Fold this protein.
Amino acid sequence: MKQVGLWACLCLGGALPSAFCQEGAVAPDAKKVIEALIAEHDADKANYPVKFEAFRPRFEAFAKEHRGTDAGFDAELWLLSGTWWSREKGTMHDEADAVTARILEAYPDSPRLGELLDKDYVYSRDAKIALCERFLEKERPVPVRAAAHLCLGKAFAREKSEESTASSRKHFEALRADFAAVPYKSTTYGAMASAHLAPHSSDMLRVDALAPEITGIGIDGKPIKLSDFRGKIVVLDFWGDW
């Protein structure tokens, strides 16, 4: 077997499709390789903590092999989110900090750094706030600074004190003023800020009250309003991924 074929078989522990491991095969695109590894992990029927530990060495090897590349960043993000499964062992925060340190060293100027904050549940409060403040430095790419404002706004909103509420508003107002048009997943940071700055009061949400207006984008990509369905039975499905 030629060297490139051997690399293709070894980089994922021999789990690549056979076409990648034939004599003289060209080394696969790194993005496709990491996508295949993630798909293999997702298809595994073991419980999450068990399969995270089983797959962790392969992701670590891939991240090291592709350090500084977009595919390597994907592998590190997977490792970061997987530290969640170490929370019962009491090592989640330390493991998350270690992965984060690697990412910051290998990708110091990446516009994707804000994606770390979508996984802020793996950080301690102080580590999360310190990371956000680091990302607010002026030389950081716009998406990174926007992500930091959103993360801090949500973090301080959870603390409920007058001081934290004021800090939360400050970050959401900055987000709406300076980053309104910056894309965030299927929406924008401006829309996220507006939603947090104008929550419905408990009085508006009382039983038998007229449901407050909800606007958004439907699955067909067109604007949609809750009031369009007035008089009909409407089921609202609130969900999240964390």
User: Anything to note?
Assistant: The first strand starts at residue 183 and ends at 184. The radius of gyration is 22 Å. The beta strands are 183-184, 187-188, 215-217, 223-225.
